[in-house]
């Protein structure tokens, strides 16, 4: 691997990670590396110690399960190529301002993704998924060294049942939980109306317990909501839709310019990994990445989907718990 890529893979929170992990956990990271086998430079950048630890955490540090999950992610990334999606690929889907990354972060540095349910006008599931993946990749690109997670802010003002799609929610849940483990820090559902609750009851079965527990319903007429939002955000940066004081309207032209600049950053990062001088000549064929589920590793079926498929998803059985309020 080139020196530049080595630096990329060991940058930021990687240095902090080595301090926070126990010897046993570090040993498990090494075990996962052995199980996933030889990687290209591009895959090696993705499979940093921090990344492997997220897969391990999501599987309660079970090495076999984490390895299977990581292999499936590598297969998906190899075929779907999320890092190659550009603003121009999703601009038409994004033009309503239904989902975007504002030019501020939470107080702890976590990037924010805003979703406005009343601006949902997608015509195809494929394009909607591509836009979601683009937003996730961009938010991750902008993580500070001491953070690994993203905050979602979901604005329910003007919500109607036509604003939501079960198929879209199903695919987002699958992609987020299987290909972006430990990336969601918190999902704030702001002023969700009563008519949303039946839909959410259907969605709950798609969510693993950890994902479910990161969903927080807050209401502008609740006295604790202001404290919650003030604890998380600078209210002078936050939009009025979330109780903030920043009345500046979202400007799509300015946002598009910023995203194209972000695309250059993404391109610079990954083209280094994909250059002829740095790519490993020992990359396993794609078939060798296909999962062989060990009988003693997991009884849960992991769907082999190289790209999101509307007719497939993971169903997770768990005990029901109360929504955080």
Automatic annotation (TrEMBL):
InterPro entries given in the database record: CRAL-TRIO_dom, CRAL-TRIO_dom_sf, CRAL/TRIO_N_dom_sf, PI_Transfer_CRAL-TRIO
Chain intervals with Polar residues compositional bias: 314-325
Disordered: annotated span: 302-325
CRAL-TRIO domain segment(s): 87-250
CDD domains, alphabetized: SEC14
A single GO molecular function term of this UniProt record: phosphatidylinositol transfer activity
Superkingdom of origin organism: Eukaryota
PROSITE patterns with a match to the protein in the record: CRAL_TRIO
Name of the protein described by the UniProt record: Putative CRAL-TRIO lipid binding domain, CRAL/TRIO domain-containing protein
Record organism: Medicago truncatula
């Amino acid at each position: 691997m080139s020196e530049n890529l080595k630096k990329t893979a060991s940058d930021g929170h990687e240095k902090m990670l080595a301090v926070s992990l126990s010897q046993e956990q570090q040993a498990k990271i090494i075990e996962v590396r052995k199980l996933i086998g030889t990687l290209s430079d591009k895959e090696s950048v993705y499979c940093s110690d921090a990344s492997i630890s997220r897969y391990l955490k999501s599987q309660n540090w079970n090495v076999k399960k984490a390895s299977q999950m990581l292999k499936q992610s590598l297969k998906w990334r190899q075929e779907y190529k999320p890092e190659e999606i550009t603003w121009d690929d999703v601009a038409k889907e994004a033009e309503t301002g239904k989902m975007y990354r504002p030019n501020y972060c939470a107080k702890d540095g976590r990037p924010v993704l805003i979703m406005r349910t009343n601006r949902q006008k997608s015509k195809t599931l494929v394009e909607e998924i591509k836009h979601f993946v683009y937003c996730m990749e961009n938010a991750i690109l902008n993580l500070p060294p001491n953070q690994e997670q993203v905050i979602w802010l979901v604005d329910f003002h003007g919500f109607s049942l036509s604003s939501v799609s079960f198929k879209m929610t199903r695919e987002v849940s699958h992609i987020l939980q299987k290909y972006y483990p430990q990336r969601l820090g918190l999902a704030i559902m702001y002023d969700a109306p009563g008519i949303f609750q039946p839909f959410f009851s259907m969605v709950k079965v798609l969510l693993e317990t950890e994902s479910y527990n990161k969903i927080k319903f807050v209401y502008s007429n609740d006295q604790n909501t202001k404290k919650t939002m003030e604890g998380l955000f600078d209210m002078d940066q936050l939009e009025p839709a979330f109780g903030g004081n920043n009345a500046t309207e979202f400007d799509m032209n300015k946002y598009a310019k910023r995203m194209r600049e972000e695309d250059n950053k993404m391109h610079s990062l990954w083209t280094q990994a994909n250059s002829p001088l740095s790519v490993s000549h020992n990359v396993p064929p794609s078939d060798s990445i296909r999962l062989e589920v060990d009988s003693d590793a997991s009884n849960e079926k992991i769907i082999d989907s190289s790209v999101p498929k509307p007719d497939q998803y993971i169903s997770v059985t768990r005990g029901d718990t109360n929504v955080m309020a």
